Amino acid sequence: MMAVSANHEGGFFIMDKDLVLEWIKSNNLKELHEYLKKQNVVDIAEFLHELDDSTLAIFFRILEKEEAANVFSYLDNEERNRLIKTFNNAEIVNVINELYSDDAIDFLSDMPANLVTQLLDKVDDGVRKDINHLLKYKDDTAGSIMTVEFIEFTKEMTVADALAKIKRVGIDSETVYTCYVVENRKLIGIVSAKSLMLSDSDVPIKDIMKTEFIYAYTSDDKEDIAKKMKKYDLIALPVLDVENCIVGIVTFDDAIDVLTEETTEDMQKMAAIVANDKPYLTTSVWEHARSRIVWLLILMFSATLTGSIISNYEHAFEVMPVLVSFIPMLMDTGGNCGSQSSTLIIRGLAIDEIKFSDFFKVVFKEFRISIVVGIVLGLANGIRIVVLNHDVYLAIVVSVSIVVTVMISKFVGCVLPIIAKRLKMDPAIMAAPLITTIVDTLAIMVYFSIASQIFNL
């Protein structure tokens, strides 16, 4: 495997594993150090997977302190743990000191509490203060994902003063593209780097700052924050406390992580799996089984209701055994139709395309869709049954059952996620497995009710 990264001229640097290992083996660390300075930190992080533990430790120590921290922030938990095992406490402290506060929190959250306490006693005072400040926020809030490294201006500063400050402290800030104007710790405006570069040096900040801006509070849900940043195409979002004082910012990379995490969680819930953020290959067989078996047990026992309904119509099977052959098709069709509707509605709810106020619009639209889909599927099956079974009444039973089943399944598939959202539940819970179980039961009831009426069973 070779990791590839682009240089500034548009060409490519190729990370050659054999060359890197040769430099390490020959102790040509100076050459390796210069080589790594030209590489992208993301590609270096990916390249670490290729190295064994002993080589990994040497390789990482060659990196410059700031570059090493950046590489570390791009490693997954498994690689971080593998690397940490080769470090002493002093080296871990150095990494924490160089990480941005939000990345440091992410790293420390996976470590034992007693080790975290020991490490925090040794890090720089400023770093420890920032980390302790962020640790007080709940995991699902904006406060837990924000960083406290941002650039502040006062409105009396000139553009020249602002640019000088960026040069002075920008290296320690997560972003310099958006800066914040404060007065008595309260956020009164924002200034973009573009505005600074296009303005004369003697222009005061108050003349170019924007006083209308998007912001969030520390207690806001982090998923809502990520959606807000996506909606307004923000690189960074200021986070305020209850007194409207700026305490941090959420950057777009953190927003992407949140959306990825939430999407993964929704997909797992839609597949009736207990949410788990660990990588698939590093999760044990027992953990995989435990995350799946609870919902499978619930769905299995709930499906017994369908079986009990079928058993009540045993006399119908004796009279018309052919009725049994259409049950799987009917149940599958209903489940598939319900899954289609629920998937689209859950997506719409997730991206705020659909709100509870749209309830009746959604129901009416799905009703019209179900009419079209149901008639097409019903006619197709009716024609097939007439041709193959030569039984018009059987064709009517199956066709009408399909039409009614499709209507019910699409109604259930669109209504349950919206109701779940209204009740502050995750709409993903009301996904394919649960809806399929409900629709199966209703489809069987409809089928045998229609058959009983037409055939006088």
Short description:
The protein is mainly α.
Descriptive overview:
- With 457 residues, the chain is mainly alpha-helical.
- It folds into three domains: 17-141, MgtE N-terminal fold; 152-271, CBS-domain (Roll), CATH 3.10.580.10; 285-455, SLC41 divalent cation transporters, integral membrane domain (Tetracycline Repressor, domain 2).
- The chain is 63% helix and 8% strand.
- A three-stranded mixed β-sheet has the order 3-4-5. It has a three-stranded mixed β-sheet with strand order 6-7-8. A two-stranded antiparallel sheet has the order 1-2.
- It is elongated.
- It starts with a strand and ends with a helix.
- One of its GO terms (cellular component) is plasma membrane.
- This is Magnesium transporter MgtE.
- Acts as a magnesium transporter.
- It is found in: Cell membrane; Membrane.
